[in-house]
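# nightly structure sweep
# worker-07 picked up a monomer target from the shared queue
# config: single-sequence mode, recycle default, output format = structure tokens
# input follows
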Amino acid sequence: MKGRVIADWTKVDFESRASRAKVVGALQHFMQAPQQNKTLRGAFQAFATKGDFPAEVLSILEKFHAVPIYDLGYEDIFDIRPFQGTKASGFKILSVESGLTFAKVKSGEKAKIFKMSGASVDVTFDLYGGGLGWDRVLIDDAQYWTLEDNAIAFRNQAYYSRAANFYALIEAVTGKDVAWQNPLPSTLSNTNDLYTANRDAQTINYACNAILTALKDKGMGVTPQSQFIILAPVGLNSRIPAALALMQQAVAGSPKKVNFNIRVIYTMMLSSSSYYYVILPKQKMKGGYRMDLTIYDKFDEMSYSDIMVGWQRYGGAIGETNQVRKCAIA
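# output follows
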């Protein structure tokens, strides 16, 4: 049987140490593929030799297990550095006046966010892990489909958890709220088709101006041309573009009401759909990946199962909360 994680399950012998090592190797490749920006198509060839299968034969599982595209939007917001292969226990953020960082949480718990302040702050790399258990009965009965279901679900949860921690940092920023601004001109009627888009445009402009004003003397090199990111719940994927497309006047060539350099990232991982965030990305919004998702395995005779534990290690922080504004939509 062909699969997505293993090219041909019939070639697997879980009694063989060498064969088990290949399974773990294939799983390791599968778990790290999203982080390494490799394509997620096709099966791993650890148990298939050239010519084993006709080229026209499709994977049985391929049509049922389309591997999801992970929400990595936070990587465009945080300045995330690769520390894999180093001996670093963390990294520093200099000249911190107000900020937030998260610490290790148990599986299923929400991120714990801590405030920080000072001339510099150490952000540690914490270890996050979880277990993947494969009942040996499923292996004996060749229920490989279920095994792959478990592996896919495990990887989904691991990357979901990491993204949730970084998004939680943004949502934990307080004192940076922006009210839904009045329309311009103020005489615009609330029955006008452009009323909502106009107020949203004024809100976005206000947020960008507030960020630039707060950061202009902090040595961050901000200018009116700096790029901003709008992080928005997916439910606003028609409302935000309407605001950004709004023209000053209803004539060709008229400048837009939102006069800043903005890119939009939509996500399903914000806890509320009643707000969106205007963010000056990178700078003192930092993250680091110390260890990619790594699998370790053993056979547990007491439970008659193959236990595979996955670990990843990373850290993140917002060293300057003035890079974020939380914007209301009503």
